[in-house]
Design goal:
Helices cover about 70% and strands about 5% of the residues. It is mainly α and about 220 residues long. The strands form 2 sheets. The chain has a two-stranded antiparallel ribbon with strand order 1-2. Strands 3-4 form a two-stranded antiparallel ribbon. A hairpin with a 2-residue loop joins β3 and β4. The relative contact order is 0.12. The N terminus is likely disordered. It is a multi-pass membrane protein.
Length: about 220
Amino acid sequence: MWVYIRDMSQIIIGIIIANVLMSIKGFGDPAFFDRYKFQVQRVLGGEKIRMVSSGFLHVDWLHLGFNMYALYLFGELAMRNFSTINFLLIYLASLLAGSMYSLYQHKREPYYSAVGASGAVSGIMFSAIILYPDKTYSFMFFPFISFPAYVLGIGYLLYSIYGMKNQVGNIGHSAHLGGAIGGYLITLVLRPSVIANHTVMVGVMALIIAGLFFFGDKLKLNR
């Protein structure tokens, strides 16, 4: 465990510490949790800070652990290509993109609320995926099954769209999707060479994202 921590970049350690400290405060202080979680009615009422603060709160240790593990898994890979400032830019912009897309999708649901770093982590994940589309990944509980990064990325986008439409599980699919799109776009801006190096994969993802924006309003949430 200490080897992993020693090898992690300082910015990722800093982000994890911020998430852990704020989540612990939220675990033991319901008023604090309620004050800083994402809630549509409160955000539209002017409490914009919730769009960022909610990304550092989690509902429990399992939720926190999964998000921080994913940040470690994909973050170290993405960090190879960016300065600390640009990595932090991708993280925070993806967090905001996830919150903004959630706000757009749930604007008629005043009591819709959410917490978690998933939007930001999705952005980092997609940054790593388009930078290294051929790298293989295996799941924590199924180490014998591995997928190329481009399959994971395309599958993640399609599942998030499906999950958002059908409200699969108690999961903020819209935040995942918004964060992933944010990370994808910002990485292309910061590293445009990716387009020439991985044209097909970048193009397929672009078509899925474009389809979402053109036809997203037809994805009526099932009640």
